[in-house]
């Protein structure tokens, strides 16, 4: 998607003057331009027209009473008020102030979003069940820690071109991830712990486990699934370059993780500590076992079925076990320090939105996700681009800067890897 500068974004600030916010540039991109700087403050340029060119970051005047953009080529300016780098002959693409790498400490971390089966709210014991839900979600939240502000996604240069061109990232069905043992690892762990609880459970508790299923995951079912995109908190990790960054020839895209907080999308830290994993499973089983015991004092198993309490508890139990299934990973992968965005989907609502790509002997279901409209703000919350340890870093930086500029991501910083890998 290419951009042509125009004055369509001009807004009137009085009956006679118009204000044009100038396009903000990253420091790395601005270094490829000739840059004008005015010492002592005040506008860089002035004329006799009815247009004010202003900083899109702080509204400081850069050119006053201009007739249009100045007749410069390859020219940038530095704002004397906020030190922003600005393109002197292009207006900002977006209506809102563009988030940049230097801004990432400005906002508070977002709250976690939980995908919970809410059927229990219509049962006679909704209050008692809600207490259990609160305790379990609090316990799980403690494992998630404060979300790092930048998430890095390692991929190839070819994939980068597609991501920027389409303004979206891919999220693939978790059952088709590169490491086929991921779901089976979590499932086996959940099953082994559950088997111990089955030895001493009440009839009602055992019925709950039977209906809910142990691991609560059915990766081969076509009825539903979970679409996942994986990230690392380190944008220059040798193992990630080798495994996911095209053997070091690729890139790591640094996203503002706070912009991934939207309804129906889960943002999760992957857990590698087996002791922690076991504690979550055991605590959940204990809570449900005690809950069933307390409810059984009022209702028989038949009555619990009739008033929908038992079906609601089954759905709720599955919600928690599903959470664990897509956040647990074998301790051997702990160096990855992975976070994920997870999108639940079902056939009835998603069939028309699911895409497919071939991979060896399989067709992988996936979707493309954008987080902006490219009008108010960019489609993707991309703030930084790290290229792999290439033998030609300056040539690669040149092409990356041109690609980012072509696609409307001039604000994205570019840097190279310091890893010793040679490709």
Q: Overview of this structure, please?
A:
The two termini are 30 Å apart. Helix content is 30%, strand content 23%. The chain has 423 residues and is α+β, with helices and mostly antiparallel strands. A hairpin with a 5-residue loop joins β5 and β6. It is elongated. Strands 1, 2, 3, 4, 5, 6, 7 and 8 form an eight-stranded mixed β-sheet that branches. Strands 13-14-11-10-16-15 form a six-stranded antiparallel β-sheet. The protein is built from eleven helices and 18 strands.
What is the CA-based Rg, rounded?
26 Å
- Kindly state the number of beta strands: 18
Residues in β-strands, percent:
15-25%
Element string (H = helix, E = strand): EEHEEEEEEHEHEHHEHEEHHHEHEEEHE
Q: How does the major sheet shape up?
A: 8 strands, mixed
Distance between the termini: 30 Å
Shape: elongated
Specify the helix fraction band: 25-40%
Structural class: alpha+beta
Mean pLDDT: 88
Q: Please report the number of helical segments.
A: 11
- Unreliable residue stretches: 1-15
